[in-house]
Amino acid sequence: MFHVKQGKLKIAPSILSADFTRLGEQVQEAEAAGADYIHYDVMDGHFVPNISMGPYIAEAVKRSTSLPLDVHLMIEDPDRYIPDFVSAGADIITVHYEAVVHLHRTVMRIRDLGAKAGVAINPSTPPFMLDEILPFVNLILVMSVNPGFGGQHFIPTSLQKLKRLRMMIDDRRYDIELEVDGGIDPNTAEPVAASGARVLVAGSAIFGQGSIEENIRAIRESAERGLARQAF
Ligand SMILES: O=C(CO)[C@@H](O)[C@H](O)COP(=O)(O)O
């Protein structure tokens, strides 16, 4: 894991904001429009105040696309469900720093089961809390809203956090994807990319209104402008 691979910007539509009566169709539309991952939010009503989807729907989503399934577990005791999501076809499984006691064990478990392992941090968690786990993860997810709901406003202090993490990753030459999630739209995509994010999750800005294809294009173009003027 000790080489830097910048790669291109990735867009990960969050299907939390999709039309569930046409879920397969909307996932396919996102894929045809050039999405890179399908972001799948799992909420348990405990770690976050909302309840969303479990492994059965994940398995159906996986069958409807050839894109990697990027599963974000916003749940307490995620270890209980990691094997179910791996069996459902999850390619990346991200757990919350705040939800896990033995984070290294959890991360290694995800990797041993054959998926990539991510760690997410809430808006109030400082980046240095990830210091010891960085050598073991494939992805870091910066939550730029308090997790639990789509359609919230981007928290601007997330930009400093992204810059700090970008530096931590690059200075140590880790091959880790830096993902951001919450309030990403054509306005915020530029500053988050300029601050170091390389995977942008967006829900309401992609599925909320208008064409999925145009919405993805607008976010990608904005992020590419941000990448071109990296803020550090
Ligand atoms: O994890 C979450 C919310 O907790 C996200 O993935 C949301 O689904 C993003 O929605 P928007 O802020 O893009 O509408």
TrEMBL record:
InterPro entries: Aldolase_TIM (IPR013785), Ribul_P_3_epim (IPR026019), Ribul_P_3_epim-like (IPR000056), RibuloseP-bd_barrel (IPR011060). GO terms for cellular component: cytoplasm. Pathway: Carbohydrate degradation. One of its GO terms (biological process) is pentose catabolic process. Binds 1 divalent metal cation per subunit. Its cofactor is Co(2+); Fe(2+); Zn(2+); a divalent metal cation. Substrate binds at S14, H72, G148, F149, G150, G151, D181, G182, G183, G203, S204. A divalent metal cation binds at H39, D41, H72, D181. Its EC number is 5.1.3.1. The keyword Ribonucleoprotein does not apply. Signal peptide: none annotated. Keywords: Carbohydrate metabolism, Cobalt, Isomerase, Manganese, Metal-binding, Zinc. GO terms for molecular function: D-ribulose-phosphate 3-epimerase activity; metal ion binding. It catalyses: D-ribulose 5-phosphate = D-xylulose 5-phosphate. Catalyzes the reversible epimerization of D-ribulose 5-phosphate to D-xylulose 5-phosphate. This is Ribulose-phosphate 3-epimerase. It comes from Thermobaculum terrenum (strain ATCC BAA-798 / CCMEE 7001 / YNP1). The lineage of its organism: Bacteria, Bacillati, Chloroflexota, Chloroflexia, Candidatus Thermobaculales.
